[in-house]
């Protein structure tokens, strides 16, 4: 990376001081309270009945028992904890001698357009025993929490729909729905290539092109290789047509880290308690925005080819544990995982609010 992250934090802090309170977006108190009460308990590395991260601490090779157990865990989360709010779909199929299954969850099924959040839950066959902590257990756990958070808001809005709310309803008041996709078969079975990779993404893209869903996808936010805790590399913006969304995510991160009511640059209590206290996004990195093509092969490729704007949350170059047996939970940074979780939760809230009915 071109810029040291410490220098960058100092610069951003200076900008915040120079331009005052910098409260373009702001966090709502109720959301801060929710995260402060739940995030540490749900996303951490210690066993607990509500832990959303540790059930992914196993191999999840397509068609294996580990894969089926994790699928059951994900589906049960939506069918029990979040029951009634999400439509749960599965997309089982066979290819190249393996059985795959995409899991697709939808909030506000009757919405005209969708914000799609996605990560892959499968793991690579080789090296043997690799549990894919950053690839992509952390991202899957972040999405499970995001779903729980959105469910909390939706239920709160429904419970109060006949009384006067202080703020406009975010979820029930938006034309934008949310789909959360857990892709199977992102990894190559033998060697990465167009026919041996992103099995689930290719299958779902084909279905969405056939049934008209693709035209209703406003944005795909794809998370991958997050949670390493390594200071560099950071996550740059990759595409011109999603750069505004990248900037929104970046402003949300600035708000989390720097923006206070009194205009000070002191750390927010929430960030200090649960998140990484440094930038994970690098808005100064413009290497890829103007290229017009993908420099990283991943599940987004068939959606990008279909014209869907893609916000790809993936560091480049990849973290040092990538595709090694060291990509385990001892090398996973829970605070960074929570940091991403907070960014995605607020990103969804802000995106839905922009599409208020
Ligand atoms: Zn991988």
Structure description:
It is a single chain. The protein has 357 residues and is of the alpha/beta class. The chain has one domain (29-244, 285-354): Zn peptidases (Aminopeptidase, 3-Layer(aba) Sandwich). The chain has helices at 5-18, 29-42, 65-81, 133-159, 199-211, 243-257, 269-274, 301-305, 334-354; strands at residues 86-95, 98-107, 113-120, 176-183, 217-223, 310-313. It has a six-stranded mixed beta sheet with strand order 1-2-4-3-5-6, sandwiched between helices. Helix 4 (133-159) links the parallel strand 3 (113-120) and strand 4 (176-183). Zinc ion (ZN) binds next to loops.
Task: Outline the secondary-structure elements.
Blueprint: H1 5-18, H2 29-42, H3 65-81, E1 86-95, E2 98-107, E3 113-120, H4 133-159, E4 176-183, H5 199-211, E5 217-223, H6 243-257, H7 269-274, H8 301-305, E6 310-313, H9 334-354
Parallel strand pairs: 3-4, 3-5, 5-6
Antiparallel strand pairs: 1-2, 2-4
Helix pairs in contact: 4-9, 6-9
């Amino acid at each position: 990376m071109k810029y040291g992250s410490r220098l960058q934090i100092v610069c951003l802090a200076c900008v915040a001081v120079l331009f005052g309170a910098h409260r373009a977006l702001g966090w709502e108190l109720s959301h801060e309270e929710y995260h402060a009460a739940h995030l540490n308990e749900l996303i951490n590395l210690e066993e607990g009945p509500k832990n959303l991260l540790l059930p992914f601490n196993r191999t999840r090779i397509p068609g294996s028992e580990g894969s089926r157990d994790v699928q059951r865990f994900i589906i049960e989360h939506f069918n029990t904890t979040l029951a009634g709010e999400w439509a749960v779909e599965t997309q089982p199929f066979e290819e190249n001698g393996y059985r795959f299954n995409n899991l697709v969850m939808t909030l506000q099924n009757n919405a005209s357009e969708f914000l799609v959040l996605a990560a892959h839950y499968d793991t690579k066959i080789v090296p043997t025993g690799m549990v894919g902590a950053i690839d992509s257990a952390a991202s899957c756990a972040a999405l499970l929490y995001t779903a729980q958070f959105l469910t909390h808001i939706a239920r709160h809005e429904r419970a109060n729909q006949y009384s006067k709310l202080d703020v406009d309803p975010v979820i029930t008041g938006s034309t934008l729905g949310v789909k959360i996709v857990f892709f199977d078969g992102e990894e190559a079975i033998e060697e990465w290539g167009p026919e041996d990779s992103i099995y689930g993404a290719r299958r779902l893209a084909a279905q969405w092109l056939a049934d008209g869903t693709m035209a209703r996808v406003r944005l795909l936010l794809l998370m991958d290789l997050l949670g390493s805790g390594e200071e560099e590399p950071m996550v740059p913006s990759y595409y011109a047509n999603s750069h505004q969304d990248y900037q929104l995510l970046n402003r949300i991160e600035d708000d989390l880290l720097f923006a206070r009511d009194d205009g000070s640059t002191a750390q927010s209590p929430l960030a200090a308690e649960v998140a990484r206290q440094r930038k994970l996004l690098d808005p100064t990195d413009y290497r890829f925005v103007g290229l017009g093509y993908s420099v990283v092969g991943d599940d987004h490729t068939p959606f990008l080819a279909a014209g869907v704007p893609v916000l790809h949350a993936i560091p480049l170059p990849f973290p040092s544990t990538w595709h090694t047996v060291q990509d385990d939970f001892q090398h996973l940074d829970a605070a960074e995982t929570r940091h991403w979780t907070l960014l995605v939760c607020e990103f969804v809230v802000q995106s839905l609010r922009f599409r208020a009915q």
